[in-house]
UniProtKB/TrEMBL annotation:
It comes from the Eukaryota. This is Amino acid/polyamine transporter I. GO terms for cellular component: membrane. It is a multi-pass membrane protein.
Length: 522
């Protein structure tokens, strides 16, 4: 349990950042690590996007692509964790942007980052729900002895049910969410051991590959040049090891947040890189060498065939269902949405920024996140290739929202004061390498899965992200009646010992028992 001293220190630091304590601080360091590691979920994550790495390099991309990307992902994690340690607040990225950017552009940049961060988390909710739907359908297919095969509408229906389940769990009190993390950690490591230890022991001899194949075979089925295909395979580790800001969004619910949040990120990321390599090596040695058979798996999940075991997919399915129903990403997305609404930046902020008096959680924000995720999931009807957009959009939007605050920290004169987690002289070069990496990855993931582009094979990531950024800019510069954010948005608004106010363009509400004493702007 958090000590009184740590709680007082956390509350005092939050007050220095301009906010009063509104959440209960129930997350300890262990539970914060559990939350961070739960977001990563190495085995289920690899299973969900396994088709990307195996079609863009085969075993080489599975192992060496994971390791290469993992090194740069760790640098990004360090850069973000330093910001989280310096200013632990639920606003996270957009708060840091406003704090460290030039006064001439901080409002606009904070607005863009806030909207990018919001859509990335909402897209993350959509992609995790879709991955769960795939795993559930695969389990049912196996149970029916491959008689039943899911259609896109059926998968969409399962995904919608998962979204609703995630939302319901995200409405739980913070105390309940925190206590579940120990169970999540235990189940996570149990599944990892099953794959790494049991898979090689249970694999038939005819499916075992030699070292030359498992560590050096490069298979490219998408017609891109081999080098570019290798880069495309990075989507697998980037989608699995992501969400470094998620723990930042629960900073106001964690004790000793400026220490717990960054170290939870670093420990979980380092473990994920190492464990991911081990899992991919185990699969590469045990999947056989018939790539076409693996890709044509009747469950729609090539990881099931590659692992040569129906048990693996059966174990993965309930695990994912249990784990993601703890809805960690939905939890983080709702906290970001709540924090952004707290500063009046979202439409209907007066309604979104409401704390349920029974659970002590932002229930309205949870359902806003779920609704947008539902809309994004409709992309699956655009064609099989468009499904990749659901997985690449969170990465691109995430990196856009990471790049700006990290850049602002070094590009402008500001009052950055390091927290307990700080790399000293290495901080600047680490941040520079992470910035270059993120820009490069954003460009790569705008490309379609194959060089032959059609309406069916189009990568809609750029269109979705571009439309979202355009709408946010329209909302900022809207020229009539003072509605646009340029007229009233001043970035994070301190609320210490003050009543909350919202722009006159927003519709106000009467005070209610669970509305945090909201009142309309005079």
């Amino acid at each position: 349990m958090a000590t009184t001293q740590s709680l007082n220190s956390d509350d005092a630091r939050l007050a220095e950042l301009g906010y009063k304590q509104e959440f209960k601080r129930h997350f300890t360091l262990w539970e914060t690590f559990g939350l961070s590691f739960s977001i990563i979920t190495v085995v289920p994550g690899i299973a969900s996007v396994f088709f990307i790495s195996i079609t863009n390099g085969g075993p080489v991309s599975m192992i060496w692509g994971w390791l290469t990307a993992g090194l740069f992902i760790t640098l990004v994690c360090i850069a973000v964790s330093e910001l989280a340690s310096a200013a632990p607040t639920a606003g996270g990225l957009y708060y840091w942007t406003h704090r460290y950017a030039s006064p001439r552009c901080r409002n606009l940049l904070s607005w863009i980052v806030g909207y990018s961060n919001t859509i990335y988390l909402m897209a993350g909710v959509a992609s995790t729900a879709w991955s769960i739907a795939l795993q559930i359908a695969a389990c049912v297919t196996i149970g029916s002895n491959f008689i039943w095969a899911p259609t896109t509408p059926q998968l969409f229906g399962i995904s919608t049910a998962v979204l609703v389940a995630q939302a319901l769990v995200a409405c739980f009190a913070t105390r309940i969410m925190a206590r579940l993390q120990s169970l999540v950690i235990a189940v996570n490591f149990a599944l990892i051991l099953v794959v790494i230890i049991s898979l090689p022991a249970a694999t038939p001899k005819e499916f075992r590959n030699d070292t030359r194949y498992a560590l050096g075979r490069f298979d490219n089925v998408n017609d891109w040049p081999n080098g570019f295909a290798f880069c495309l395979s990075f989507l697998t580790p980037l989608w699995v090891i992501a969400g470094f800001d998620v723990t930042a969004h629960i900073s106001e619910e964690a004790s000793n947040a400026n220490f717990a949040v960054p170290w939870a990120n670093m420990i979980s990321t380092s473990l994920a890189v190492i464990i991911g390599v081990a899992v991919n090596i185990a699969v590469a040695f045990c999947m056989g060498n018939d790539l076409l058979s693996i890709l044509s798996d009747p469950t729609g999940q090539p990881f099931a065939t590659a692992s040569c075991s129906r048990a693996s997919i059966s174990l993965t399915t309930p695990y994912i269902s249990i784990l993601y129903r703890y809805c960690i990403i939905t939890l983080a997305a709702s906290r970001q949405t709540f924090a952004f609404a707290r500063d009046g930046a979202l439409p209907f902020s007066f309604w979104i920024y409401r704390m349920n008096k029974f659970s002590g959680t932002p229930v309205n924000a949870v359902w806003v996140v779920t609704s947008v995720a539902f809309i994004l999931t409709l992309l699956v009807f655009a064609g099989p290739t468009a499904i990749t957009t659901i997985f690449s959009l969170p990465i691109v939007a995430q990196y856009l929202s990471y790049i700006i605050p990290i850049f602002c920290r070094f590009a402008f004169k500001n009052d950055f004061t390091p927290g307990p987690f700080y790399t000293g002289r290495l901080s600047a070069p680490i941040s520079i390498f992470s910035l270059v990496w993120m820009v490069f990855m954003m460009i790569v993931f705008m490309f379609p899965a194959t060089p032959i582009v059609s309406s069916v094979g189009m990568n809609y990531t750029s269109a979705c992200l571009g439309a979202w950024v355009l709408l946010s800019l329209v909302g900022y510069y809207f020229p009539f009646y003072g509605i646009g954010g340029v007229y009233w948005f001043k970035g994070p608004v301190p609320n210490v010992d003050t009543e909350r106010e919202f722009p006159s363009s927003a519709v106000s509400m009467e005070k209610s028992g669970d509305s945090n004493n909201l009142e309309k702007k005079a």
